[in-house]
């Protein structure tokens, strides 16, 4: 099975760093919208495809634009929400990385399915500050869950730190922020 991790398009929170990281619930910029549209050429979707999406507006917008006109399955999961990389227990979750509520997602993105089998704890806190040992257990379980979906390819629309954390876990290689994917950059992994 192949998993394709895709970073969301350019978000408003990246326009005036570091101040803009304190923007709550940032959307895609005009450039981010263009980037999301180009995913249609790189990864044409069909009805049988599955996209797993982080519960953050910019990832949801990226997935919606990319999948426009295709009735594929879109699942929102906090197990691919923002993740600090590298981890530092003294850092706090930034406003730009706070998970949207299930109610807001249902209202604004009603064509997405919420992964509700997970404890509400994950929907409240996500994986942003999860210590490495705990992340490893949760991430391995998530990857096993992906295998049981039954598709030969699954797309995951997520964030630079999250993608790098999963990549480090899967490959066993020590990575750094230099390994972050660019906006709508992707990483293919065979499991």
TrEMBL record:
Official protein name in the record: Histidine phosphatase family protein
GO molecular function, one term: phosphatase activity
PANTHER family registered for this protein in UniProt: BROAD-SPECIFICITY PHOSPHATASE YOR283W-RELATED, HISTIDINE PHOSPHATASE FAMILY PROTEIN-RELATED
Top-level taxon of origin: Bacteria
GO CC term, one of those recorded: cytoplasm
UniProt cross-references to CDD domains, sorted A to Z: HP (cd07040)
Residues in the signal sequence: none
InterPro entries: His_Pase_superF_clade-1, His_PPase_superfam, PGM_Phosphatase
